[in-house]
Amino acid sequence: MKTKQPQKDSKFTNEGESLALSPLNELFKDSIADLYWAENHLVKSLPKMISAATAPTLQKAIEAHLLETKEHVARLEQIFELLGNKPIAKKCDAMEGITKEAEGIVEETPPGTSTRDVGIILASQKVEHYEIASYSGLIRLAETLGLSEVSAILHQTLAEEQLADEKLTSLAEEKLNQQASKEA
Predict the structure, then answer these.
(1) What is d(CA 27, CA 170) in angstroms, rounded to the nearest whole number?
(2) Helix or strand or coil: residue 58?
(3) I want to staple 58 with a disulfide (CB 3.0 to 4.6 A). Which of 33, 44, 53, 166 is the partner?
């Protein structure tokens, strides 16, 4: 059985199409490269948060999101292919800053405490909110550019990012915030 190859959108080929050089198209491709760097950076950063977390439920939530993040990287690679480009990562200063802040939270909170876990949740939600904003904006751009297949892929990842944020909120509200409030 022959596998269906994704069709490259002619708007993104170098065949002289006017949109190929449009500033909006360039912004879109640049933003995909930025998010690709961010997701790859998270694949490297999340294991540190897993080992710093104390609550097994938090560790499991971050482990599950690490697996999803690896899938997000694969989806972005699929988008590059659909656009007729090789995957290129452009350093994402925002994600680098957010993950540095997360490392600072871990360093500044006592190990083995619910306070550290709450700090990890807070830092993780900052990551999720950045990703939610990025994927939402890219969906709008993909739709504007007529890239419905790309938009559908981005929607799938956005839904997972929103669910991850909701899970983190639940972990904090169900137990960890209260436990942290009782620590000396």
Answers:
(1) 35
(2) helix
(3) 53
Phi, psi of 100 (to 5 degrees): -65, -40
CA-wise closest residue to 118 among 131, 109, 127: 109
Answer for the pair 69, 157: CB distance below 8 angstroms, yes or no.
no
Start-to-end CA span in the chain (Å): 64
**Which residues, in sequence order, are CB contacts of 144 under 8 Å at separation 6+?**
24
Residue among 132, 107, 108, 128 nearest 172 (CA): 128
How many Å apart are CA 71 and CA 100, to the nearest integer?
23
Contacts for 140 with CB less than 8 Å, ≥ 6 apart: none
* pLDDT-based confidence at residue 18 (cuts at 50, 70, 90): very low
Residue 184 — pLDDT band, cuts 50, 70, 90?
A: confident
CA of 129: how far to CAs of 49, 72, 112, 158, in Å?
A: 17, 15, 26, 10
pLDDT tens readout for residues 24-42: 999 999 999 999 999 999 9
182, amino acid identity: K
Q: What is the mean pLDDT of the chain?
A: 90
